Amino acid sequence: MLLPIVAYGDPILRTVCKDIDSGYPNLKVLIEDMWETMYYSNGVGLAAPQVNYDIRLFLVDSTQIFNNLDEDEKDKYSDGPGIRQVFINAHIKELDGQEWAYNEGCLSIPKIREDIVRNEKVTLEYVDENFQPTTTTFFGVTARVILHEYDHIEGKLFIDYLKPLKRKLLRGKLDDISRGKVSVDYKMSFPK
Fold first, then answer.
1. Residue 9 belongs to domain with CATH number
2. Residue 95 structural domain
3. 180, 178, 189, 187: which is closest to 9 by C-alpha?
4. pLDDT tens digits, residue range 167-187?
5. Each residue of 141-162: pLDDT tens digit?
6. Which of 15, 35, 60, 72 is most open to solvent, judged by the fewest CB atoms within 10 Å of its CB?
7. What is the pTM of this model?
């Protein structure tokens, strides 16, 4: 089932989400719905607060990035072919590597893209959809997508990394999004 994407301005996007256990109601259905919603919305990641759940759950499919690279870009990122994975109760153990800029966007903040600087490596402790505990280090563009989604479960948005002047310049567009004055090809829910 397609779920509406929560728009910028909704308080849930600023909520630090809580860990869950394997008894969380209808978790399997929620994960399936999130995958369907993410693909329908042309996203490469989706976090639970973006579909109005305050839990530490997000999905990442960075294989789509690699599948859509031009031939001359194929060697640009060393973490190909990417991953398709569910992350539950994720917590960062370490950030490492050089910082690098990449043009990011967000389904909750449509029509806005900005260069965001992040670390090239992240070590994450999490459980998968079967609640198997794992600690893994991710790097490259996959780490970037993970860090973007991880920020969502910490109540942060990619625009928080922008300099104050840049955010001020975007204020009008952000206000329009929170008022529902934006046209997208997917279903959204806007703050009341």
1. 3.90.45.10
2. 5-189
3. 178
4. 999 999 999 999 999 999 999
5. 999 999 999 999 999 999 999 9
6. 72
7. 0.95
